[in-house]
């Protein structure tokens, strides 16, 4: 069933429709939360808290067609709340990138992991959403509540810096 239709039914009190919406988005929500939190249990907590908030505040959603973006934004907010409560630095688990087709050697994977850990968590999650989850720049902009031009700048600036650092490292070897 179409997502917007499920949202309309869920707004009318159809719990089954809300459950179907959550089943559609649970994997993406978990991946985004994990990208922020780097902890399985905290990520699950963030997703569960986001589901609860989405259920209770579903009537505040203006456009049913933006449910996915709205929900993922709640997941990000919940992840940030958990981060604030722990007050720790977040590291991205680069092992998630290992499933991507690559000719990289284990040494290059370690370099990439180290370099990605040097990127600020919010910007790292933008890179992750773009190149691992396949989100468009517009979707990332809506999910992170960041202007499109800022999303583009942050992603491409970080990629350029990462590329330059990799080239420098290879030149030294």
From TrEMBL:
Q: Which InterPro entries match?
A: RNA_pol_sigma-70-like (IPR039425), RNA_pol_sigma-70_dom (IPR014284), RNA_pol_sigma70_r2 (IPR007627), RNA_pol_sigma70_r4_t2 (IPR013249), RNA_pol_sigma_r2 (IPR013325), RNA_pol_sigma_r3/r4-like (IPR013324), WH-like_DNA-bd_sf (IPR036388)
Note the CDD domains from the entry.
Answer: Sigma70_r4 (cd06171)
Q: Does the keyword Nucleus apply?
A: no
Q: Does the record carry Acetylation as a key word?
A: no
Sorted alphabetically, the keyword list is: Sigma factor, Transcription, Transcription regulation
Entry-linked Pfam families: Sigma70_r2, Sigma70_r4_2
Indicate the segments forming the RNA polymerase sigma-70 region domain, all copies.
Answer: 25-87
Q: Which residues form the RNA polymerase sigma factor 70 region 4 type domain?
A: 110-162
Q: Which NCBIfam families match?
A: sigma70-ECF (TIGR02937)
For this chain, the family text in UniProt reads: Belongs to the sigma-70 factor family. ECF subfamily.
Supply the PANTHER family for this chain: RNA POLYMERASE ECF-TYPE SIGMA FACTO (PTHR43133), RNA POLYMERASE SIGMA FACTOR (PTHR43133:SF51)
Name of this chain's protein: Sigma-70 family RNA polymerase sigma factor
Q: Which organism is it from?
A: Robertmurraya mangrovi
């Amino acid at each position: 069933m179409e997502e917007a239709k499920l949202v309309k039914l869920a707004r009318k009190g159809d719990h089954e429709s809300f459950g179907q919406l959550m089943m559609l988005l649970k994997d993406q929500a978990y991946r985004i939360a994990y990208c922020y939190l780097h902890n399985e249990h905290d990520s699950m907590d963030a997703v569960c808290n986001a589901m609860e908030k989405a259920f209770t505040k579903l009537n505040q959603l203006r456009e049913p067609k933006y449910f996915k973006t709205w929900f993922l934004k709640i997941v990000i907010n919940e992840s940030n709340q958990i981060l604030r409560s722990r007050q720790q630095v977040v590291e991205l688990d680069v092992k998630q990138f290992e499933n991507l087709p690559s000719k990289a050697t284990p040494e290059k994977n370690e370099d990439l992991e180290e370099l990605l850990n040097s990127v600020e968590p919010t910007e790292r999650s933008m890179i992750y959403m773009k190149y691992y989850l396949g989100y468009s720049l517009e979707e990332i902009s809506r999910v992170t509540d960041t202007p499109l031009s800022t999303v583009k700048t942050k992603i491409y600036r970080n990629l350029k810096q990462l590329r330059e650092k990799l080239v420098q490292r290879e030149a030294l070897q």
